[in-house]
Amino acid sequence: MTASSSSPSLAERLRHDEAIVTAWSSLAMPMLAEALGRSGYGAVTLDMQHGQHDIASVREGIAATRLSGAHSVVRTPVDDFASVSRVLDFGAEAVIMPMVNSVDDALALVGAAKFPPMGARSWGPHRAAMLKGESPAAYLAGANRETLALAMIETPAALAALDDILAVDGLDGVFVGPGDLSLTLSAGAEVVPGSDRVQTVAADIAVRTRAAGKIAGIFCNAAEDARGAQKMGFRFMAHGVDMSLLMEAAGAASAVLD
Amino acid sequence: MTASSSSPSLAERLRHDEAIVTAWSSLAMPMLAEALGRSGYGAVTLDMQHGQHDIASVREGIAATRLSGAHSVVRTPVDDFASVSRVLDFGAEAVIMPMVNSVDDALALVGAAKFPPMGARSWGPHRAAMLKGESPAAYLAGANRETLALAMIETPAALAALDDILAVDGLDGVFVGPGDLSLTLSAGAEVVPGSDRVQTVAADIAVRTRAAGKIAGIFCNAAEDARGAQKMGFRFMAHGVDMSLLMEAAGAASAVLD
Amino acid sequence: MTASSSSPSLAERLRHDEAIVTAWSSLAMPMLAEALGRSGYGAVTLDMQHGQHDIASVREGIAATRLSGAHSVVRTPVDDFASVSRVLDFGAEAVIMPMVNSVDDALALVGAAKFPPMGARSWGPHRAAMLKGESPAAYLAGANRETLALAMIETPAALAALDDILAVDGLDGVFVGPGDLSLTLSAGAEVVPGSDRVQTVAADIAVRTRAAGKIAGIFCNAAEDARGAQKMGFRFMAHGVDMSLLMEAAGAASAVLD
Amino acid sequence: MTASSSSPSLAERLRHDEAIVTAWSSLAMPMLAEALGRSGYGAVTLDMQHGQHDIASVREGIAATRLSGAHSVVRTPVDDFASVSRVLDFGAEAVIMPMVNSVDDALALVGAAKFPPMGARSWGPHRAAMLKGESPAAYLAGANRETLALAMIETPAALAALDDILAVDGLDGVFVGPGDLSLTLSAGAEVVPGSDRVQTVAADIAVRTRAAGKIAGIFCNAAEDARGAQKMGFRFMAHGVDMSLLMEAAGAASAVLD
Amino acid sequence: MTASSSSPSLAERLRHDEAIVTAWSSLAMPMLAEALGRSGYGAVTLDMQHGQHDIASVREGIAATRLSGAHSVVRTPVDDFASVSRVLDFGAEAVIMPMVNSVDDALALVGAAKFPPMGARSWGPHRAAMLKGESPAAYLAGANRETLALAMIETPAALAALDDILAVDGLDGVFVGPGDLSLTLSAGAEVVPGSDRVQTVAADIAVRTRAAGKIAGIFCNAAEDARGAQKMGFRFMAHGVDMSLLMEAAGAASAVLD
Amino acid sequence: MTASSSSPSLAERLRHDEAIVTAWSSLAMPMLAEALGRSGYGAVTLDMQHGQHDIASVREGIAATRLSGAHSVVRTPVDDFASVSRVLDFGAEAVIMPMVNSVDDALALVGAAKFPPMGARSWGPHRAAMLKGESPAAYLAGANRETLALAMIETPAALAALDDILAVDGLDGVFVGPGDLSLTLSAGAEVVPGSDRVQTVAADIAVRTRAAGKIAGIFCNAAEDARGAQKMGFRFMAHGVDMSLLMEAAGAASAVLD
Ligand SMILES: [Mg+2]
Ligand SMILES: [Mg+2]
Ligand SMILES: [Mg+2]
Ligand SMILES: [Mg+2]
Ligand SMILES: [Mg+2]
Ligand SMILES: [Mg+2]
């Protein structure tokens, strides 16, 4: 399956309430991103925060994901707003900013992700337009609608400010981080993303996000978490970290003689 | 032509009102930067904002440009002041900071680009000194004068603050971004860098910059823009993006049989 | 334009007497290969003999070319038969072996390029099959017909053995090297690929190759050489070396003020 | 588990009839090799023939495998005897040469893999000695015994010459390639490594190899093949290609909602 | 010597008042970091501020240092708090932030370096845990104690705020930069790290740091500086920059015939 | 010191009996080669046989060495004649082929290293000509004289054939490998390059090489070996391996407190 420029975008599909499962690419190797995209995922998210990706591997990984026909998404490092614009220039269809804990954080994200008048993204999307097979003018016309800015909600502060964050014009949705939610809700005591407490909070975020007419995404450690999230109203589910997928499969294969 | 340490620096040449055309290196390949430098350009600007360059490619690209005999310049990502110091440490002769919209932005640029007492650049220029064939002490003595800090003027806010920005001690000049000017002046409606409106603004920037005794640079999409800019008083003209140069030439060559 | 698995292959197109112009990629940067493929060329040839390519850049460059929709071809180093198989495993649609001066050379090329019983290519084309969107079994069924082995004819010895070389089963065609032909025909005195002597020899090679029912390709320095080659009967014309295309265009752009 | 210099070597373990399962690293990323080594495998084989590895990725991948505590093995390209010595210099504990079809091929392998008087390996193992924590003199004393030269048996010609190949002094063992055996035994008609014909041949190779007092290894596509091979007398079983392990696991994870 | 997970950590050793000499890795090559670690150093510090390191080279360099058995430390660029978390995720045992000039700077460092409730470090240390051979839960339990946050004291502002900086909970110690101290104390006039003025200030910092119960580190240009620093109470001494070590040794070796 | 195109070539200097000391670059990092070239060496030899260099690092390392002003030399892997031509195309001024044990080996080296009529080197030296600042025609005119083909003499077979090897037209000289000489003369028992036996043989090689009017080079482990070699008549002395230089210096620096 190869995406043509007439295929629906990730933004379109999510706005039409389609559920999309994204792979989580932590390893800085473009061909692995392509392989994930060829394995059934609708999207591949390249992780620059906790994963191994850097500017070079994201630049190449977005093209490799395109070759697979999957949508490409990038999670940037915390507060790295310059990289938000850069990865969109490279052709990412969505960007996930971690630790958006306030309206100011959300505004900064929109500022970097959206062209004027919505934001202050600087002009230079030639690589992205090339990958879409569009002219620069066509890219400009569609960009603010077709490239998604997603804010991670993963702390008590973010929960407290959630409705205001959701009201920020240009913010397309949220992405829940259950690991950090567990850590921050427990004041550093544990990381149990599947706990009742975290899942209850997640469900609430989904409801409020959908009520605000925005996209709800979430990181899912276990398969049942992904199915549960879909029921909660989430539509953009991350499930499957490349390193874990490989090591679990390798653990089984290496034990073939036992 | 290979630059020796006794050749005039980019700073010296621009302060003597010499017109310099710089190539625009968007592709993260050092040998391409060298090739641009060998093709007649006075300088090669490595673009980390909208181009594909990262720390590694800039680090190598500056040395490759040095081998060509051309001056090396780097445009950093927005607000990435840490990289300002880093690329100067790698041997860039000038740094261009995008989206300098206020005196505070300009002060932050000078802070990162100039050693005390003018700024707060941290000590560690051994690679730059090696490329210049200088001792560290000699490098220190000349650095604040010989390495240029250029602020991009490309928004209404920057235009409003222009005279104050130009008054910032240690800021060596400005660099006009006609694409973003067009985008921001039209509130996101268009990118027409050659429009009368943008060109009129550019000419005004040139006049005010020269009046302040500083260097005026500009990005030029078309050949006539470059010649026009020179007449307006600009002296540092970017003209020729590697990717576009290649693709246009390739488009013609591939059509050889038609 | 993105090639789907149902598009005609390079082999099919050349066997149907279609004329194909290939870019010549000498720079070891995958995105440049993609850019060439997006500029109008039917194919991109990655050069490991005199160009800068190595195994890693060819591995990535073939995928990048695929993304552009162009066919990918690789010229290997002299006598590097192991790389013949490797680049086919990576998904190259044709391989060009330089300095095929004897039937033995041609047999070695076929041995490396074709599966049994035609040759002795070893099994392991999973990456190539992935890029074609084929199962391994389907790849096996088509490989000997769909991947081309082209022998460079560029010395007096090759000319003397030409008919026997052309008679080697599994050799799909020849590729003329006018530079080396000029050098070897002049006993090292000159490299004038457009000389009458070289062009006369080239024309003769085209005639004999077509008479043998095989594909005739040639490297063309000048545009008129490419058009002349087409008239001689060549159908696979290389025209446009990335480095030269860039440097000529850069030379013109850098002189914008003169 | 981190290997110390006093851990038994791969050679020792195999000579003591211990069964070792090796991962098959086809992707040119050192950290993936390390991850395979941490997943339970006794060894990691880096594949330069059909995999994506090149000199640089093998050089780094051997160190990464060392960090995991697993043994490192390299399969070189066909007839690439220079690389045999190079990967041993980099610290590989065994080298697998594909397509050893004659005594001459086996002698060339031994020539490259063993120091005089057994072979003609050239002196320069400083990196390998560093990774082992040995002095160069200690490395020399043990190298011919501690680094394994394994010949792939995968064609009718190799089968015909098997006893003579096994008699070559310095050849430590064989490694069966069922895919190529299937292809060559069927004259190019099929690749069915698990067929009765291939498995019968494999069992015969195991018996004759053990009779000659040498090590028998084999590539195993399916888990039952690996267990069957152990019963046949094989002790060095490759099972689990990184790319396949990842894609199968990703295929399952991406279908979480279905 | 290979570090096992039961070896004492860098934090433990420094808290037990052990003196540790760290190499200074300025060159972005992982194997050089490993070589430094194998040469007798207790730790290797990878420098992203003035050195050539970037995210990719640090990611690989930490693993390479681990292979050598030495502790790994990273100095980040100025104000690059996102990288503080990233390099800890990659497995660095300590992070050095340059230009910590205020309590706010110190708080930001702690925020990025420590998990809640001490800081706001986000959860994702799987690579670091893998390198330590720990489960994620065990990593969480020890992380805030076992990974060090060190603040560079190198300006008059930092000196003025020193006691308050030292009082910041979660800040593990300071690292003195004599080069920048010399530069800033002289208002840009000189860089003489061994001057009496600088050394007197350094001694005072050591005393106050130890009084606050924290770790004192310092960069030492000359051997006598390192010995002097130990006497002043410093315990983490950087001495030996890879590039200088190499060039001085090469200068001597190249003059062998003179 | 930067080499200009009018500086004497390495070939010229050696033919005028000038003694040149070359660094030995084993680490695949171009900037280290440049650093060696800036440290006083006349030349830098990039080692692809036992060192870590590959095609990519040699391609970049030659340019980096050029930037330093030193001459660049490459030692290729054993029998890798394709790489002989490639590294000359990249701009190496000399190539050293290991294990030249017969006249046939020497002829193959000359075949790859020299243009017709002397050899069969294929045409494509555009990068080398660019680095020299020459036109392709000028490069052709000088290449066979200005690029050196050096054969390693390091086995009893080579010693036996030495006079015939020296008589091969186009072979510019020999390079003695005392390590392998020691190993092969002792039938694998030892590597003692400074032994009387090896040094006596080396001295004899120097005499016979000079008598044949050719260049004599040698690898020198110890400083006294280099001085001794010069007295024996050698003029191209390798002394100083980057890894050893670094590790010895690091060993001393890390012990600063002891
Ligand atoms: Mg999180
Ligand atoms: Mg702009
Ligand atoms: Mg040719
Ligand atoms: Mg096989
Ligand atoms: Mg400092
Ligand atoms: Mg040798």
UniProtKB/TrEMBL annotation, chains A, B, C, D, E, F:
Keyword Ligase: no
Entry's Gene Ontology cellular component terms: cytoplasm
InterPro entries: Aldolase/citrate-lyase_domain (IPR005000), HpcH-HpaI_aldolase (IPR050251), Pyrv/PenolPyrv_kinase-like_dom (IPR015813), Pyrv_kinase-like_dom_sf (IPR040442)
Gene Ontology molecular functions: aldehyde-lyase activity; metal ion binding
Record key words, sorted: Lyase, Metal-binding
Superkingdom of source: Bacteria
Location of the HpcH/HpaI aldolase/citrate lyase domain: 23-248
Pfam family, one: HpcH_HpaI
Record family assignment: Belongs to the HpcH/HpaI aldolase family.
Name listed for the protein in its UniProt record: Hydroxyacid aldolase
